[in-house]
Design a protein that fits this description.
With 460 residues, this protein is an alpha+beta fold. The protein folds into 4 domains: 69 residues, conserved putative lor/sdh protein from methanococcus maripaludis s2 fold; 101 residues, Efflux pump adaptor protein, beta barrel domain (Elongation Factor Tu (Ef-tu), domain 3, Beta Barrel), CATH 2.40.30; 76 residues, Orthogonal Bundle (Helix Hairpins); 94 residues, no CATH class. Helix content is 30%, strand content 31%. Strands 2-9-12-11-10-13 form a 6-stranded antiparallel barrel. It starts with 23 loop residues before the first strand and ends in an 8-residue tail after the last helix.
Length: 460
């Protein structure tokens, strides 16, 4: 018995989705002329410009800390105080010894002047003058030693006020108030990292060295973007500062250092980030969405949509990629529409039906939402199964007018709008092979029901 309106097998023995010769739903986007950035992607590590571990230079009880963990400090800023009393006592003792020896020196110099007057009157022997001069020189040496002791004691006293050696961000404190700090403590009091500016080190292929070197010699800024590891969030923008002096022969790469202002402290030392180094900008070149470019036996190609809604294969040569856009060279012009979704079943010359790339903007989306609202209320009209059967019958070649008339009122040319929403969602989640098997099963049930004279029960 002839099966009017049933889908016919194709030459390969399978049934085409939406009918034997029905147009394939595809999403398109126009090729265009635009600027494309030539970039290199890499993984890099953040390094502090300078790092200092602050150690106590004298031992004693820690009296106070003058910083908050994580704050920015300036070079020379007071950050801690150690008990100064023992060092004040040592300074006073050294100053006392200096004063005593100074008084002795002053007295010896007075005696020397007196002896010289007596020698001029030939009242004393020359030997006594020589002895007094030696005593004066001896006391002068003692004075210098005492002065050194005083200076050393004063320096030790100054060490009780611990200052930041560099500007930067302080870390977590390593010692609590009241503890005895020692000069040999491994962890010190706190660490300071200079993060403004902060450095980023990453490796790029050695083939880019000539271009990078030329740009650096000509004082042209090379833009560097730091992104989160998943590539979803831009952290900071900087510039290349220098490159290494040798290429790593094991990886054929060279290390590049970039600097970032890091005013917002978005970057931290030892942080791993994704790096995007912009080497050049191609001005007004032909570009298409990267999703449109395919690779096959003939090389790289894409599908262009013609005026009669057929597609033709265009062999292209891919170039630089900037985000979702790729530079191409070939038989393609700006403004031509290329297929970006739905290419899995296309062939040269196939008919297509253009649908929106965003499912929410596709024809029939509002009708689907309306049907969902009807099912939430009391509801009336055809059941999902009968609506799906009517939609399938109307879409098949040679279907009688009665079948088309009985189709659901919200029917659209898009095949997704011809089935209930819950079935459409299930079909969207299927692979092409599973989708074909599901359709074949539904059609077989329909044919069996028509032959047996009883309505078939659809399978979801």
């Amino acid at each position: 018995m002839a099966q009017t309106g049933a889908a016919r097998p194709t030459a390969s023995g399978t049934r085409r989705f939406g009918g034997a010769n029905g147009p394939q739903p595809v999403s398109v986007q126009a090729a265009r002329q635009q600027d494309i950035r030539v970039s290199v992607n890499a993984i890099g590590s953040i390094l502090a410009s300078n790092t200092a571990v602050v150690h106590a230079q004298v031992s004693g009880p820690l009296l106070s800390l003058h910083f908050q963990e994580g704050q920015q400090v300036r070079a020379g800023q007071l950050i801690a105080e150690i008990d100064p009393r023992p060092f004040q006592a040592s300074l006073s003792q050294a100053e006392g010894g200096l004063a005593r020896d100074k008084a002795q020196l002053d007295n010896a110099r007075i005696d020397l002047a007196r002896y010289r007057d007596l020698l001029a009157k030939d009242a004393i022997a020359k030997q006594q003058i020589d002895t007094q001069e030696a005593l004066v020189r001896q006391l002068e040496g003692t004075m210098k030693a005492d002065q050194g002791t005083v200076d050393s004691a004063r320096l030790q006293l100054s060490y009780t006020r611990v200052s930041a050696p560099i500007s930067g961000r302080v870390g977590l404190k390593q010692v609590d108030l009241g503890n005895i700090v020692q000069t040999g403590d491994v962890n010190g009091l706190v660490s300071i990292t200079q993060t403004r500016p902060i450095a980023l080190v990453f490796a790029v292929p050695a083939a880019h060295v000539p271009l990078i070197s030329t740009r650096l010699r000509s004082k042209q800024a090379l833009r560097v973007e730091a992104w989160s590891r998943d590539g979803t969030r831009q952290l900071a923008i900087g510039r290349v500062a220098s490159i290494d002096n040798a290429i790593d022969s094991s990886t054929d790469t060279i290390k590049v250092k970039a600097l970032f202002g890091n005013i917002d402290d978005a970057l931290f030392p030892n942080q791993s980030v994704s790096v995007r180094l912009q080497l050049d900008t191609l001005s007004q070149v032909l570009a298409v969405p990267s999703a449109a470019v395919l690779r096959g036996a003939q090389g790289f190609y894409l599908y262009a949509v013609n005026a009669d809604n057929s597609v033709s294969t265009r062999v292209v040569k891919p170039g630089a990629v900037d985000g979702d856009w790729m530079v191409v060279e070939g038989a393609l012009k700006a403004g031509e529409k290329v297929v970006i979704d739905g290419v899995d079943r296309l062939r040269d010359g196939a008919k297509v039906e253009v649908i929106a790339a965003d499912p929410r903007q596709r024809a029939g989306a509002s009708a689907v939402a309306g049907r969902r609202g009807e099912r939430k209320g009391e509801g009336s009209g055809p059941s999902p199964a009968s609506a799906a059967s009517a939609a399938r019958a109307a879409s098949m070649p040679g279907a009688p007018a009665a079948s088309a008339a009985n189709a659901a009122p919200s029917e659209r040319s898009n095949w997704m709008d011809r089935v209930p929403p819950e079935v459409a969602e299930k079909l969207k989640a299927m692979s092409p092979e599973d989708r074909r098997a599901w359709l074949q099963k539904r059609r077989a049930e329909k044919e069996k029901a028509e032959q047996g004279g009883a309505p078939g029960k659809p399978s979801n």
